[in-house]
Design goal:
binds pyridoxal-5'-phosphate; 8 strands; 8-stranded parallel β-sheet
Length: 230
């Protein structure tokens, strides 16, 4: 049995090692602790261990954790977002990681009281089970967002295929980085697009090697609420 603080230490060490291999500085990498599968007490432990960014994928989770933690954290909405739920999400989170269609952008534009930091979710691996914009459509999609002044494109987000095949995980992350470079070089004022949100419990080391600036880590930090693995 290990504590949240011990697990975080271990993860930070792995991030440091990956940065060293890639010639990067660990300060370029922000850990978002994904607390969607645990209760507010475990979220508190994460905050007490020094993490300041929390990720949730449902409104109920936000309700529960924000009541317990509030302004002690920066909030990341990481799940797919239905248009009818936008109004309950946008004005209470700092980042939305799952912008993947024009209709969602329109709804954010309508409901947000100020510009929202968004990540465009890209389906780099092309798996039909995954949401996200096709890589070849991403630049055009970002260009069309210029008319929505409540949307700011902080960066791109992807999920790697669920596989043991390191080469295909790596090429997914690398593909996102290349796309990020392409979009940020467009110089669009509303789309600095400097961030790369990629890497989860099983693959964050590879993601960091490939340039991740935000890793979204759930189970490796918080474990499971019950039947905890040690
Ligand atoms: C659940 C989730 C994570 C964290 O996954 P772990 O495997 O628990 O680290 C990261 N990103 C998204 C979009 C998720 O839904």
């Amino acid at each position: 049995m290990s504590t949240v603080a011990e697990r975080l230490n271990h993860i930070q060490q792995q991030i440091n090692d990956a940065c060293k291999r890639a010639g990067r500085s660990p300060e370029e990498v922000t850990v978002v602790a994904v607390t969607k599968s645990v209760g507010p007490e475990r979220s508190r432990e994460v905050i007490e261990a020094g993490v300041r960014h929390l990720g949730e994928n449902r409104i109920e989770g936000l309700d529960q954790k924000q009541a317990a933690i509030g302004h002690d954290a920066h909030w990341h909405f990481i799940g797919s977002l239905q248009s009818r739920k936008v109004r309950d999400v946008v004005n209470r989170v700092d980042y939305v990681h799952s912008l993947d269609r024009v209709s969602l952008a329109k709804e954010i534009q309508k409901r947000a009281e100020q510009p929202v930091n968004c990540f465009v979710q890209v389906n780099v691996s092309g798996e039909t089970s995954k949401s996200g914009i096709r890589p070849e459509d991403t630049a055009e999609f970002v260009r069309t967002l210029g008319e929505y002044d409540h949307i700011r494109i902080a960066g791109l987000m992807t999920m790697a295929p669920n596989t043991e095949d390191e080469a295909s995980i790596r090429s997914t992350f690398r593909g996102l980085r290349e796309l990020r470079d392409e979009i940020s070089s467009l110089g669009l004022p509303y789309a600095p697009c400097t961030e790369l949100s990629m890497g989860m419990s099983n693959d964050f080391g590879i993601a960091v090697e490939e340039g991740a600036t935000i890793v979204r880590i759930g189970t490796a930090i918080v474990g499971y609420e019950s039947g905890e693995r040690s």
